[in-house]
Design goal:
It is a single chain. The chain has about 200 residues and is α/β, with parallel strands linked by helices. The chain has a single domain, classed as Vaccinia Virus protein VP39 (Rossmann fold). Helices cover about 30% and strands about 25% of the residues. The chain has 6 helices and 7 strands; from the N terminus they run ααβαβαββαβαββ. The chain has a 7-stranded mixed beta sheet with strand order 3-2-1-4-5-7-6, with helices on both faces. α5 links the parallel β4 and β5. α1 packs antiparallel against α2 and α2 packs across α3. It is globular, with a radius of gyration of 15 Å. The mean pLDDT is about 90. It holds the Pfam family PrmA.
């Protein structure tokens, strides 16, 4: 499967029925999801690997990982409604994915059961709650040695500093994140947000 074919498959997936501004539930654009996944795939981090989609939302990254031949895929999200939508999306692409409801901040959750080779994620950018991405970074490094995440543009120095001594930023890929009008406070039908796909590796 090439990059364009993957993007086309992901374009068919459903988004959030009732997105939450508090949870920053913006649908990950298929083009950005496909770029992250195909890049990880080309680096040997997807095919034949155990993958976890952390904060999976409606499961676009999880579904893409399954389509690219991951040996197993698990997605976890705090929102039961999003998890239900993710299960439907997995069924739509005939992907065997385990989805769970859980909070990345919950220390009582059995995280050892989700240890994997690669984490993919699109964590909150922190627009509604400052530092909302930090628990995702922390948990990703507990679960996997390789992490590919979508972050707000200009976040790579922060990620490098925050993970110092725990991980090394391997590469940063600049992308445009087309965000459509989703919530009442949005003024434009579409805004193109600068984001970075950051690949960091546990040390």
């Amino acid at each position: 499967m090439n990059l364009r074919h993957l993007e086309m498959r992901l374009e068919r997936l459903a988004g959030f029925a009732r997105p939450s501004a508090r949870l920053e539930q913006y649908q990950t654009p298929p083009a950005v999801a496909a770029r992250l996944l195909f890049h990880a795939y080309m680096q040997g981090a997807i095919e034949g690997r155990a993958v976890c989609d952390l904060g999976c939302g409606t499961g676009i990254l999880a579904c893409g990982a399954a389509l690219l031949g991951a040996s197993s895929v698990v997605g976890i999200d705090i929102d039961p409604g999003a998890v239900a939508a993710a299960r439907k999306n997995a069924d739509a692409v005939d992907a065997q994915i385990g989805f769970l409801v859980g909070d990345v901040r919950d220390e009582g959750f059995d995280w050892s059961s989700l240890r994997c080779d690669t984490v993919v994620m699109n964590p909150p950018f922190g627009a509604q709650k400052a530092h909302a991405d930090r628990p995702f970074i922390d948990r990703s490094l507990q679960l996997a040695s390789e992490v590919y995440g979508i972050f707000n543009g200009g976040s790579s120095p922060f990620v490098a500093a925050y993970t110092e001594g725990r991980a090394a930023v391997e590469e940063v890929i600049a992308c445009s994140f087309p965000m459509r009008r989703t919530f009442a406070h949005h003024r434009k039908d579409r805004a193109d947000i600068a984001v970075e796909v950051i690949h960091y590796r546990r040390i």
